[in-house]
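Quick review question:
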């Protein structure tokens, strides 16, 4: 309930806050009734698409982070860990550098395809039965390093590609179109449905593969389904806003504290928590450097890096 209230407040702030502040009443009136005033146009044309994209991206990354930690059994896992973000980034560079694609609405499909291919490669290289989560993580890290090197080569050799790519890779909701959010919504919805379907199986897998089999669970099918959900969610989110760091990590740890390890109750909280985090991060970025702004990817990195450092040092201390 608290997360739902926070989400409502965050969305209201997102409609009102920016380089040109809009009174909350005027922002809500523009949302509900439209209008032709300058404030109404700003809210309708700029901030509603931005907020809608932030909601979808946050919900997707929050759910993906929770799933990823359940699959890898690693509390340091984040959607970037399995090479999904790197796959999306490499596909975007190819689209920009070799195919002349320039808008988010166009390269969303390339980013999604790159994320899917990367996830499949990691699944095959890391072992398709899900018995070796560490091997899967190492495969993701290795693939991510290779793809990052490819991205670096292409962007260094082509300055125009670099200029276009750098505005995407930082992670931003600025100048997003409502059509992009509409393109994302089916992928995010499908990913969430698949996540809900595999959640009970992942709960059983936490007891061990042999125990799960005795309970009628097929570990390979559950891992494959979870991987498909992660690909759909991360691919769509990364395509729309770029690679936002640590959203999945932050949300997964929040959910673990609130709901425990049960994914069935944790998944709705992850969806809400991710949406709150991304929208609030975007609002904070507009407030910090007003009338300019700090991109939401930078804000989430600043929030998540201390948590990652704390978790890593605590693990080493053990």
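Suggested answer, residue by residue:
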């Amino acid at each position: 309930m608290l997360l739902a209230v926070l989400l409502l407040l965050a969305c209201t702030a997102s409609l009102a806050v920016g380089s040109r502040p809009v009174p909350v009443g005027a922002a809500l009136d523009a949302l509900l009734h439209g209008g032709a005033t300058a404030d109404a146009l700003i809210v309708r044309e700029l901030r509603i698409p931005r907020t809608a994209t932030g909601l979808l991206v946050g919900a997707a990354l929050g759910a993906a982070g929770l799933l990823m930690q359940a699959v890898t059994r690693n509390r340091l896992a984040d959607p970037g860990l399995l090479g999904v973000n790197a796959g999306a980034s490499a596909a975007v560079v190819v689209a920009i550098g070799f195919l002349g694609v320039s808008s988010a609405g166009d390269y969303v499909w390339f980013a999604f395809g790159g994320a899917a291919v990367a996830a499949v490669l990691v699944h095959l290289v890391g072992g398709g039965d899900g018995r070796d989560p560490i091997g899967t993580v190492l495969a993701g890290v290795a693939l991510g390093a290779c793809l990052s090197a490819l991205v670096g080569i292409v962007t260094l050799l082509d300055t125009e590609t670099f200029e276009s790519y750098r505005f995407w890779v930082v992670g931003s909701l600025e100048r997003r179109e409502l059509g992009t959010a509409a393109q994302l919504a089916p992928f995010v919805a499908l990913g969430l449905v698949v996540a809900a379907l595999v959640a009970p199986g992942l709960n059983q897998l936490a007891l061990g593969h042999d125990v799960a089999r005795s309970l009628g669970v097929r570990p390979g099918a559950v891992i494959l389904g979870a991987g498909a959900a992660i690909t759909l969610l991360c691919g769509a989110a990364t395509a729309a806003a770029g690679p936002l760091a640590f959203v999945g990590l932050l949300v997964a740890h929040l959910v673990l504290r609130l709901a425990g390890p049960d994914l069935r109750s944790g998944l709705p909280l992850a969806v809400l928590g991710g949406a709150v985090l991304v929208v609030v991060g975007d609002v904070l970025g507009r407030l910090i450097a007003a009338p300019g702004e700090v991109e939401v990817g930078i804000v989430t990195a600043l929030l998540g890096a201390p948590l990652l450092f704390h978790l890593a040092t605590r693990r080493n201390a053990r």
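Why it works: Residues 63 and 270 are 5 Å apart (CA to CA). The first helix runs from residue 2 to 16.
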